[in-house]
Amino acid sequence: MSARLDDTDRAFLRALGEDATLSAGALGRQFGLSQPAAWRRLKRLRDEGILAGRRLELDREALGFGVTVFLGVKLATKGRVSLEDFERAVTAIPEVQVVQHVLGLYDYRLRIVARDLADFERLLRRRIMTLPGVGDIEANVLLSEERRPGPL
Predict the structure, then answer these.
(1) What distance in Å separates the CA atoms of residue 141 and residue 118, rounded to the nearest whole number?
(2) Is 104 helix (H, G, I), strand (E, B) or coil?
(3) What is the spatial distance between Cα 85 and Cα 108, in angstroms, rounded to a whole number?
(4) Considering Cα of 91, then 96, then 97, then 102, what sign does the dihedral take?
C-alpha cells in the first residue's frame, strides 16, 4: 500500500533530501507551518516508514579512498555454498560498502572503495577471490558520479 503524500509532504522530503539535519522548526519556517505542525508531519512520515532514518555522507576521497569499483560476482557452486555464507563473509570486509543480491548475469553486485588501483588489486586477490563460492567476477571502475537531488 503506498502512502498518500500531499505537496507539503513532498516539499519536506525534497528539503530533507538536500539537508537531512533540518529541524521541524526550520522546515516549518521554510514552508509556512508552525514548529508543532511541522513536527507532527515529520512524525507521521517516520511512523509510516517513509522517513527511515538519517544518513551521514562521508567524502571518500578526503578519507583517502580515491577508487570506487562495482564488482559483479557470480558464485561458482551455489549448491555447496549458501548465499548467507557468502553474504556474511563479504560484509565482513570493510571496503565493501554495498552488497546487492541481483538477478541477471551475476549473483551479486558489490560497491567497493580502495585507496588506489593497487590497493583494489590486493583486496581483490587476497579477500574477494578467496571468499566461499566465488566464481566469475567483473570489475567496473567508477570514473565519475552525478547524483540526482533528493532521496528519489
Answers:
(1) 13
(2) coil
(3) 13
(4) negative
Instruction: For residue 23, count other CB atoms closer than 10 A to its CB.
Output: 12
Q: What radius of gyration do the chain's Cα atoms show? A: 20
For the chain, domains (ranges, CATH) are: 7-47 (1.10.10.10), 67-141 (3.30.70.920)
C-beta of residue 149 within 8 angstroms of C-beta of residue 100: no
- Residues 91, 89: Cα–Cα separation, whole Å: 6
Tens of pLDDT, residue by residue over 101-143, are 999 999 999 999 999 999 999 999 999 999 988 999 999 999 9
Question: Per DSSP, what are the bridge partners of residue 96?
Answer: 112
Q: Is 87 helix (H, G, I), strand (E, B) or coil?
A: helix
Strand, helix or coil for residue 119:
helix
66-101 tens-digit pLDDT: 999 999 999 986 666 678 889 999 999 999 999 999
Contacts of 125 (CB under 8 A, 6+ apart): none
Query: Three cell numbers at 45?
Result: 512520515
Rounded-to-integer distance, Cα 57 and Cα 68, Å: 15
